[in-house]
Amino acid sequence: MIIQPKVREYICTTAHPLGCAQSVRNQAKYAQRLGTVLGPRKVLIIGCSTGYGLASRITALENCQAATLGIMFERPSNGKRTATPGWYNTAEFHHIAEEKGIYAKTVNGDAFSREIKEKTIQVIREDLGKVDLVVYSLAAPRRTDIQGRTWNSCLKTTGKAFTEKSLDLRTNQIVEKTIFPATEEEVESTIKVMGGEDWADWIRALKEADVLTENAMTLAYSYIGPELTYPIYYHGTIGAAKQHLHHTMKEINETWPDVHACISINKGLVTQASAAIPVVPLYFSILYKVMKEAGTHENCIQQITRLFTGKLFGPTGMDTDNDGFIRMDDLELKPEIQNRVKECWKAVTTENLKDYCDLEGYWEDFYHMFGFGYSNIDYNQDVNPEVTIPDLVS
Ligand code: NAD
User: Fold this and answer.
1) Phi, psi of 16 (to 5 degrees)
2) What pLDDT score does 51 carry?
3) How crowded is residue 98: how many other Cβ atoms within 10 Å of its Cβ?
4) Atom 12 of ligand 1 has which residue's CA nearest to it?
């Protein structure tokens, strides 16, 4: 099959197996160069196949030499359609782990379900005994809870409607976008999907099955962002869910004193989840330009390796703020960065887009997520879309 990108607004409906493999190899090489730290030995990563979860799995392998069990929700190729990028990423991750002789297994299925939690526990019992780190890195549009009720998340503001500049990714034009407030039900539903309830459900299930080591750690990822995006992010439906997640961290720590729950507030980056949020792509493309000019831009693997080797398991111990959060958004939120972003935000128009936005960088990251845009890959060559993941549990 000749596989070319097919982009529809903020999603690409095809993925290239060789390009995804290349992307995983590049991340692994980057992590490997940083050396090892004394970190976890056996890691469960819920949401392991793309974005921050994949970077966490690579870092656990390369910088901690840890065995990893991943949970993902990905689709294989049926011969006519390509697989999802997370499928190809995971296949390559397994090859790297195999080359190193380090355990890796992946469970493909709905992490919100009781069935996948039970299956995961069974694999831990049989293969690992216990795990000492659980990374929770899910980003999902919907959740069917264990009572069988389905909740949908939405990306809306709360309170009153909000109108702001936005980047139309189809035409590269600056447009005005109005985001209407969510109903109470929509806020509740988004909290159900992206809040902390399922994180706590996982920890409860793992504790009850006695598959966590004493003093095991669990880590979830969050985002706050600058005031500029508060109306759509932090004060929007997704922010309400993140605040629930933050509260869950305290709840887990109080309920299970021998489990250490923590949250890392990460930098805003183009991933499949974040590309879908209105207004945010314009902010990201300005931020990329400003941070690249300042020499402080980081991608997923750079964020997570800095987290693991510096702020989590580094020689100086865990580095948290007064709320107990690890601030990987420290460089993004520096006043000089945000002041410059605000200036660019005010000045940007369709005509001067290139002066203020790193559109190339935005699109490069976007295409790389789906395995496209690598100069050493010939995208006119026939390639087999059907890739097997060794040690897949489905
Ligand atoms: P992503 O879309 O790249 O990854 C989501 C992962 O979740 C994938 O591995 C996918 O397979 C898995 N997944 C989704 N639904 C699932 C289900 N039902 N069952 C099992 N697996 C499922 O997302 P991301 O941007 O890496 O986000 C991960 C976390 O990081 C989220 O909590 C997000 O809010 C947070 N975060 C993201 C950013 C950002 O800018 N991208 C910034 C800070 C924090």
Assistant:
1) -105, 120
2) 95
3) 13
4) 47
Which secondary-structure segment (H or E) carries 222?
A: strand 212-222
Give CA–CA dist 157/161, Å, rounded.
7
Would you put residue 148 in left (φ > 0), alpha (ψ -120 to 50) or beta? left
d(CA 303, CA 267): 8
Residues, the chain? 394
d(CA 130, CA 55): 22
pTM reported for the whole predicted model: 0.97
Asked if residue 161 lies in contact with residue 179, where contact means CB atoms within 8 angstroms, the answer is yes
Regarding the beta carbon of 299 and ligand 1, being less than 6 Å apart is answered: no
Cα angle 171, 267, 97; round to 5? 100
- Residue-wise pLDDT for 319-364, tens only, equals 999 999 999 999 999 999 999 999 999 999 999 999 999 999 999 9
Alpha carbon 286 to its chain centroid, in Å, reads: 20
3-state helix, strand, coil in the chain (%, to 5): 40, 20, 40
Q: Give 382's DSSP letter.
A: B
- State the catalytic residues: 233
Q: Which atom of ligand 1 is nearest to the CA of 48?
A: 9
As given in the structure block, the two tokens for residue 201 are 């459900």
CB burial string 257-268: b at 16+ within 10 A, e below: eebbbbbbbbbb
Distance (Å, whole) CA 326 – CA 264: 5
With a 6 Å cutoff on the Cβ, whether 71 touches ligand 1 is yes
Token pair in block for residue 12: 């690409």
How far, in Å, is the centroid of ligand 1 from the Cα of 136?
A: 9
What's the distance, Cα to Cα, between the start and end of the chain in Å?
A: 26
Q: Tokens 């709360």 map to which residue?
A: 158
At 135-145, the pLDDT tens digits run: 999 999 999 99
Kindly report the CA angle at 374 between 368 and 376, in degrees rounded to 5? 160
138 Cβ below 6 A of ligand 1: yes
> Is the C-beta atom of 51 inside 6 A of ligand 1?
yes
Residues 6 or more apart whose CB falls under 8 angstroms from that of 113 comprise: 144, 146
